[in-house]
Amino acid sequence: MLENCQRHHMVLGLTALTLVTILVLIIESRYAAEGSLARRRGQQFVIENNSTCWRHESYTVVQECHPCSEFDIVSRSLGVCIHTHYKEVLRCKSGEIVTKSCDRVALIEQRNFIKFEAIAFVLGVLSYLVSYARDRILSRRNYMRIERQLNRVQ
User: Fold this and answer.
1) Concatenated DSSP letters for 86-117?
2) What is each CA distance from 91 to 48, 73, 83, 101, 107, in whole angstroms?
């Protein structure tokens, strides 16, 4: 079937599929962000030392949401690492430092997605090059076979 398609039709189809994929990813990420906000409102994360100063005071983020160490998870030394395995360190306006549990970092998921896309792109390019080289070899063999047949007839 692909042999019957013209090159510009295949390029047009691939472009359409790429655009649809990007559109789905944008819509999915938008809904995922809304879903995580809804979960945050409804979900109570464990807070170390039972401090909630970050809820009623302004605060600065000392450390962004990052994975807990394996020791913290296994030993349960930090209560915030038990449920989500991620923690965030905040400093409230009063000077109190609070460690709170947080969702998986979107940056990590984005980085993993970009790695996956890069690997898929490289594999796609390599597949194309191998396919192109194989097509050229087969075309050359076919051309040589036809040329030999024509030389025998003459």
Assistant:
1) EEEEEEETTS-EEEEE-PPPHHHHHHHHHHHH
2) 13, 23, 22, 14, 22
Task: Tell me the whole-structure pTM to 2 decimals.
Answer: 0.43
CA atoms of 36 and 72, how far apart (whole Å)? 24
Structure tokens at 8: 């510009």
Averaged pLDDT, groups of 10, the chain, 154 residues long? 72 88 83 56 50 81 85 79 83 85 73 90 95 94 93 82
State the Cα–Cα distance between residues 114 and 14, nearest whole angstrom: 19
Residue 133: φ, ψ to 5°: -65, -40
CA-wise closest residue to 87 among 69, 114, 113, 107: 69
What confidence tens digit (pLDDT) does each residue in 94-121 have?
888 888 888 776 667 778 888 999 999 9
Please name the residue that has the structure tokens 């076979």.
145
